[in-house]
Design brief:
Blueprint: E1 3-6, H1 8-16, E2 20-23, H2 26-29, H3 36-50, E3 54-61, E4 64-67, H4 71-79, E5 84-86, H5 91-96, E6 101-103, H6 105-114, E7 119-121, H7 132-135, H8 140-147, E8 151-154, H9 163-173, E9 177-180, E10 199-201, H10 204-216, E11 223-226, H11 237-253, H12 261-273, H13 275-303
Parallel strand pairs: 1-4, 2-3, 2-7, 5-6, 7-8, 8-11, 9-10, 9-11
Antiparallel strand pairs: 3-4, 3-6
Amino acid sequence: MFKTELSPEVQAAQEFGNPVVALESTIITHGMPYPQNLETARLVEETVRASGAVPATIAVINGVLKIGLTDAELETLAQLKNVAKLSRADLAACLATGGNGATTVAATMIAAHHANIDVFATGGIGGVHQGAELSFDISADLQELAQTAVTVVAAGAKAILDIPKTLEVLETLGVPVIAYNQDEIPAFWSRGSGLKAPLRMNSASEIAKAHLTRMSLNVPGGQLVANPVPLEAEISQDEMLPIIAQAQAEATEHGIRGKSVTPFLLQRIFELTEGASLKTNIALVLNNARLAAEIAAEMGRMRA
Ligand code: PSU
Ligand code: MN
């Protein structure tokens, strides 16, 4: 029904049983401005390689599900204007109509699972938006974590989301939320959130083992690993909150809805903070890529 294409690097890794880490593409097209998006995408791939795994950046190009992009494809994607943002609802339709699109956390999980990849690194996941009690805006990423057996390494959720409500929904959906090496759930730009994480693990091997144990119990779904931003790159909540509040007020004022909400907020936050928030964002994505590579390697060892 549709074509899946593995990059030569991913194909070789899978043949030899070497670890692979999936990476999303919405962070490139809707999460960061050009050219930092392209530079970051390349750096993340390099970081995965330097940590002993092979990167598989996922996107749809001309109706083909790409598991691993060439550098030229990465560059094209990073510069494309108006590229579709594909979540669970959109992925099949895009493949069926021969379109182009960037995958969110939800769609990247579906594609990774389809290609037998267990571990995925990103920056932040989607979640329950502030004011969701009126807007009903809850990301499909949360449902996906409940259904698809992929371990997602993120730095927690941005404060554009309501973090306590996001944790409640994840609990309802039965998603393990694991803080890495600390008790608190990290809040993207900052290491702390003031909220205790439901679970804590201190090593990649514990996380890998928990993933495989869940699978052998036949409990569907993945895990969310919340990896705190490195200390030297962190920005305090106090600094970010007024900026987020302004971005949010503008979104309401402009009547932004549906899948445009997250990209609109991310774009305005980047504009309003100029360099600072972007630098932190890049540092945390690289940090997540390292941990994801370690988890993938541990899982490979345990499966062998
Ligand atoms: N949060 C971030 N950076 C991002 C995203 C979220 O800090 O790039 C992207 C991810 O691709 C995520 C998507 O899966 O936005 C969530 O969008 P929505 O809220 O529309 O589900
Ligand atoms: Mn939404």
